[in-house]
Design goal:
mainly beta; globular
């Protein structure tokens, strides 16, 4: 997570390109560098509460984190509403049910479970900052009710099991900030190594080199990444291909309903909905 605003001098060029290219994203003004025909559209699902970081979807509910405010929001009738406050830089989030969330408190390097009905909070995992001055960032659900924990301090990928055991799956992954199940292994975004790794059977190999990958999601069978370095959305596998750009600060990703993808943009204070993205992929 960092502040990365697209250069203002690009705006006129993008406007010209948008007029010339068939793949224009509705209502946002971005252009799509994608195979023709590309029918992708980007629309605002909601504004955030200031600078949204990660998103989680459960049923019809969309939750998002606000690190600077120390809050978790939910989109209610197209508007952002805070459902939990006084957290220490909440980043990664998993929605176990509409009323039970698991969230990273980055400043504490801690995973916390929150019951929205009772407002009770329970510490699930406490780590140390390790080699970096930042704590955990992204988390994702793992099989058997586990949680993938990209440990930014130790540069490792860990798995928190449903029984509360912490297992190390791989080491030497730079600064891992997100992880998601993919093709029998786990894809990991390494922000400082400019890489997306695939961890399988205790070994890690590089799937692609990207500029500061931040968020990961599996969409329509493909691995998708958001990147801070070039403010873009990429298809990582089956083929490395830049799909959409430029956003402001593209971070958390989450599949939405049957054919959409959500993206949290911190500097634009937006939760974007991306539709028809499959038409732009090279897979």
């Amino acid at each position: 997570m960092r502040v990365a605003v697209p250069p203002p001098q690009l705006r006129p060029l993008l406007a010209i390109a948008a007029a010339a290219m068939p793949a224009v994203l509705a209502g946002v003004g971005f252009t799509a560098q994608t195979p023709e025909p590309c029918q992708a559209s980007v629309s605002k699902l909601s504004i955030g509460l200031g600078s949204p970081d990660r998103v989680a979807v459960i049923g019809k509910k969309v939750f998002f984190t606000e690190p600077a405010l120390g809050s978790i929001g939910v989109i209610h009738h197209g508007q952002p509403v805070s459902v939990a406050d006084n957290l220490k830089a909440p980043t990664g989030i998993i929605a176990r049910s509409p009323g039970k969330l698991i969230v990273v408190q980055q400043d504490l390097d801690r995973l916390t479970q929150i019951n929205l009905a009772t407002h009770r909070r329970h510490k699930l995992l406490q780590l140390g900052h390790g080699a970096t001055d930042l704590g955990l960032e992204g988390i994702q659900a793992a099989p058997a009710k586990g949680i993938y924990v990209p440990n930014t301090g130790s540069g490792s990928l860990q798995l928190l099991t449903a029984a509360g055991r912490l297992k190390t799956l791989a080491k030497h992954l730079g600064r891992p900030v997100d992880a998601v199940s993919f093709r029998g292994g786990v894809a990991v975004a390494d922000e400082t190594g400019d890489a997306v790794w695939l961890v399988k059977k205790g070994k890690a190999r590089v799937l692609a080199h990207l500029q500061e990958p931040d968020g990961l999601a599996v969409f329509d069978g493909a691995l998708i990444a958001s990147t801070l370095g070039d403010a873009a959305l990429w298809e990582v596998r089956p083929q490395r291909w830049r799909l959409l750009y430029p956003f402001g600060e593209p971070e958390g990703l989450a599949p939405y309903r049957k054919s959409s993808l959500l993206l949290a943009d911190g500097t634009q204070n937006r939760i974007y909905r991306i539709d028809h993205l499959a038409s732009c992929m090279k897979q």
